[in-house]
Write a structure and sequence with these properties.
- This protein is of the alpha/beta class.
- It has one domain: Endonuclease, Chain A.
- The chain is 33% helix and 21% strand.
- It has six helices and six strands; from the N terminus they run αβαβααβββαβα.
- It has a six-stranded mixed β-sheet, sandwiched between helices.
- The longest helix has 9 residues.
- It starts with a helix and ends with a helix.
- This is Phospholipase D-like domain-containing protein.
Length: 114
């Protein structure tokens, strides 16, 4: 999936929590959109890394916060992934996660409106 993310023209993601390594796990570029739970409690508990957010912002990513976010949805130019994984080493290396990847245009359009 990392190759698909790197080659996509347009990236939009809603990922509840970001580990410090999130920019490597979920690379994004200028103009891409990221929604994350960056609430005080998420940052205090280290569920969301302020360093990761700073890195995304320095790369020109549009970062928004939603304190009740629990979704994990990534939409690229021609596909979408919906699943349980956060952008963290814990999700990548330790947890048993599930993700569905689709190129169904109806699902991609629907995911963009969330």
């Amino acid at each position: 999936m990392e190759i698909l993310v790197e080659t996509a023209r347009c990236r939009h993601a809603a990922v509840a929590f970001l580990g410090a390594e999130a920019p490597d796990i979920l690379p994004m570029k200028r103009g891409d959109t990221l929604v994350v739970n960056a609430s005080d409690s998420a940052v205090r508990s280290r569920s969301t890394s302020p360093d990761a957010i700073t890195t995304y912002l320095s790369h020109g990513v549009l970062v928004y916060t939603e304190s009740e976010l629990h979704a994990k949805v990534i939409v690229m130019s021609s596909w979408a992934a919906v699943g349980s994984a956060n952008a963290s080493l814990r999700s990548r290396d330790r947890m048993i996660e599930a993700v569905v990847v689709t190129d169904d245009k109806t699902i991609i359009t629907s995911a963009l409106t969330l």
